[in-house]
């Protein structure tokens, strides 16, 4: 009997493969970083071929780390950076261009044109505002950039997919036998899917200008899509689970009941709260599919997306040279008792929830001759916590029943004790880190394992979740409110800068 379920976590900065046992523990893992391309200001691209090669390599390396073979693996799940967009040739499998990453803002003029003064004209259908964030405008930009592509796309010769679609198509055989599918969570991030019908919306396709023939089939998050053929080490293993990365973390954190919430601290920061069997409308947040298991009804979520979290720490390292490694930021920030009234709004590519201002730009305010790099490092960490607070306030306004008693946290930044304590302070509720922090990959593994009988129900997932660390709020409430007001003043200075 197979001992493990494998999961591919194809993220913004790296690709990983992890093997999980039935208790949800990691048995083997491997990781490969990939190049970030910035050919113009505001452009962010990945090489899809590099992503595919890294995925295949990490599968082999994770199996070796666990001392496992394909016979030990019951299924493979995939989780991925969501809105990142790939077009490829059906006949050859070659990408027509580099992938346009979710952070990319090149489509801003197109989005303004499509909106025609109303950024919410598709929100009732898709749950989303018109924004550079989502896949639909990126597809349109690629089709407009090369006029020959549109005719080929209309004939189904050029295919579109988010990263999950591209990987599944390639891993199941590519031009010979590739399966062109996506799941409901990824489809719900394209600006092209009807959130209730769970099918591509003709109105959205017509507005944005996307041929239906190039789109993948929308499937559930937990079912067998096809067998893995492109990597001999896992040949014949079924690909049986797909969840966009933030929905995967929600699933891995066992947030199955309305009101359950998690926050993932990665390149960006993404807070999702389960809203049950119906989408909840919000002008400040994103209504999205949380997951769908087989033929069961879908579950929905409200999401607050924050573009810059860990990316801000990398900026301190790579662009400013304040530290040699990201691990040094906590000690540097902890060397001062506070930010010295310095606030950093990391709006490198605009602000997402709850502002949705693509013209906002990064702003550091309050500096004096007293300010040191330690104050800036601390302000960078605190910015993530302040943005999270604003998202939670927006969730309370949209769904008054979803009152937070605690916040489950995951992602690389949760090892930062200073940030986690400050997060609890500004929210006024505990932040809780689970024993298994690889919740994104774990969620994809659970989805695949549920489809193949490794786990029988979500009750098994709940039973596997265990608390590892809890931070209780300690800061005086009046002091929190005073600092929050200063944060809002800093945000006001960043809005509209690039108009």
Topology at a glance:
Elements: E1 4-10, E2 14-20, E3 26-33, E4 45-46, H1 48-66, E5 73-80, E6 85-89, E7 99-100, H2 108-115, H3 123-126, H4 135-145, H5 147-154, E8 158-162, H6 163-171, E9 181-183, H7 184-187, E10 193-194, E11 199-200, H8 202-208, E12 217-219, E13 222-227, E14 238-244, H9 245-252, E15 261-265, E16 269-276, E17 286-291, E18 299-306, H10 310-318, H11 329-334, E19 343-345, E20 363-365, H12 373-398, E21 407-410, H13 417-427, E22 431-434, H14 439-451, H15 458-464, E23 467-471, H16 477-494
Parallel strand pairs: 1-5, 5-14, 9-12, 15-21, 21-22
Antiparallel strand pairs: 1-2, 2-3, 4-7, 6-8, 10-11, 13-14, 15-16, 16-18, 17-18, 19-20, 22-23
Helix pairs in contact: 4-5, 9-14, 12-13
Major sheet strand order = 17-18-16-15-21-22-23
Q: What's the CATH H-level superfamily name of the domain at 4-246?
A: ATPase, nucleotide binding domain
Strand content: 15-25%
Main sheet makeup: 7 strands, mixed
Count of helix runs: 16
Keywords:
499 residues; alpha+beta; seven-stranded mixed β-sheet; 23 strands; Nucleotidyltransferase, domain 5; six-stranded mixed β-sheet
Kindly summarize this structure in a few lines:
This protein is an alpha+beta fold and 499 residues long.
Describe this structure as you would to a colleague.
The structure is a single chain. The model has no long low-confidence stretch (mean pLDDT 94). The chain has helices at residues 48-66, 108-115, 123-126, 135-145, 147-154, 163-171, 184-187, 202-208, 245-252, 310-318, 329-334, 373-398, 417-427, 439-451, 458-464, 477-494, and strands spanning 4-10, 14-20, 26-33, 45-46, 73-80, 85-89, 99-100, 158-162, 181-183, 193-194, 199-200, 217-219, 222-227, 238-244, 261-265, 269-276, 286-291, 299-306, 343-345, 363-365, 407-410, 431-434, 467-471. It is 34% helix and 23% strand. It is globular and about 65 Å long. It has a domain at 4-246: 2-Layer Sandwich (Nucleotidyltransferase, domain 5), CATH 3.30.420.40. With 499 residues, the chain is α+β, with helices and mostly antiparallel strands. The N and C termini lie far apart (60 Å). The chain has a 7-stranded mixed sheet with strand order 17-18-16-15-21-22-23. The chain has a 6-stranded mixed sheet with strand order 3-2-1-5-14-13, sandwiched between helices. Strands 4-7 form a two-stranded antiparallel ribbon.
């Amino acid at each position: 009997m197979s001992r493990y379920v494998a999961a591919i976590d194809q993220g913004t900065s790296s690709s990983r493969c992890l093997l999980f046992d039935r208790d949800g523990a990691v048995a083997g893992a491997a990781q490969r970083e990939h190049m970030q391309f910035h050919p113009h200001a505001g452009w962010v691209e990945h090489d899809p071929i590099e992503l595919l090669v890294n995925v295949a390599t990490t599968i082999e390396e994770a199996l070796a780390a666990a001392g496992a073979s394909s016979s030990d693996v019951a299924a493979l799940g995939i989780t991925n950076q969501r809105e990142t967009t790939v077009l490829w040739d059906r006949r050859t499998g070659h990408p027509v261009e580099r992938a346009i990453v979710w952070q990319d803002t090149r489509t801003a003029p197109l989005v303004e044109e499509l909106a025609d003064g109303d950024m919410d004209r598709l929100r009732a259908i898709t749950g989303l505002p018109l924004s550079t964030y989502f896949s639909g405008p990126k597809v349109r930009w690629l089709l407009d950039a090369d006029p020959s592509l549109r005719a080929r796309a209309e004939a189904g010769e050029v295919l579109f997919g988010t990263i999950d679609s591209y990987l599944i198509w390639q891993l199941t055989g590519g031009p010979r036998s590739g399966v062109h599918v996506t799941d409901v969570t990824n489809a719900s991030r394209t600006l092209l899917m009807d959130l209730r019908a769970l099918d591509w919306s003709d109105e959205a396709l017509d507005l944005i200008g996307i041929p239906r023939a190039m789109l993948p089939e929308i499937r559930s998050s937990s079912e067998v899509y096809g067998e893995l053929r492109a990597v001999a080490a896992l040949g014949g293993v079924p690909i049986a689970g797909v969840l966009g990365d933030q929905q995967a973390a929600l699933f891995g954190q066992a947030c199955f009941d309305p009101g359950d919430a998690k926050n993932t601290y990665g390149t960006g920061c993404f807070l999702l709260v389960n809203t049950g069997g119906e989408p909840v409308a919000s002008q400040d947040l994103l209504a999205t599919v949380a997951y769908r298991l087989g033929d069961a009804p879908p579950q929905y979520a409200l999401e607050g997306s924050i573009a810059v979290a860990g990316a801000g720490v990398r900026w301190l390292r790579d662009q400013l040279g304040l530290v040699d490694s990201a691990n040094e930021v906590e000690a540097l920030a902890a060397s001062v008792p506070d930010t010295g009234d310095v606030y950093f709004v990391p709006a490198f590519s605009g602000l997402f929830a709850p502002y949705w201002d693509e013209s906002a730009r990064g702003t550091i305010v309050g500096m004096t001759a007293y300010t040191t790099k330690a104050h800036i490092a601390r302000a960078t960490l605190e910015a993530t916590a302040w943005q999270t607070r604003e998202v939670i306030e927006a969730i309370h306004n949209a769904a008054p029943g979803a009152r937070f008693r605690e916040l489950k946290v995951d992602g690389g930044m949760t090892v930062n004790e200073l940030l986690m304590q400050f997060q609890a302070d500004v929210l006024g509720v505990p932040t809780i880190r689970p024993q298994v922090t690889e919740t994104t990959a774990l969620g994809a593994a659970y989805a695949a394992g549920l489809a193949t009988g490794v786990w029988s129900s979500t009750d098994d997932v709940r039973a596997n979740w265990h608390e590892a660390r809890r931070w209780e709020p300690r800061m005086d409430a009046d002091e929190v409110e005073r600092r929050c007001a200063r944060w809002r003043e800093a945000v006001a200075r960043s809005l509209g800068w690039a108009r």
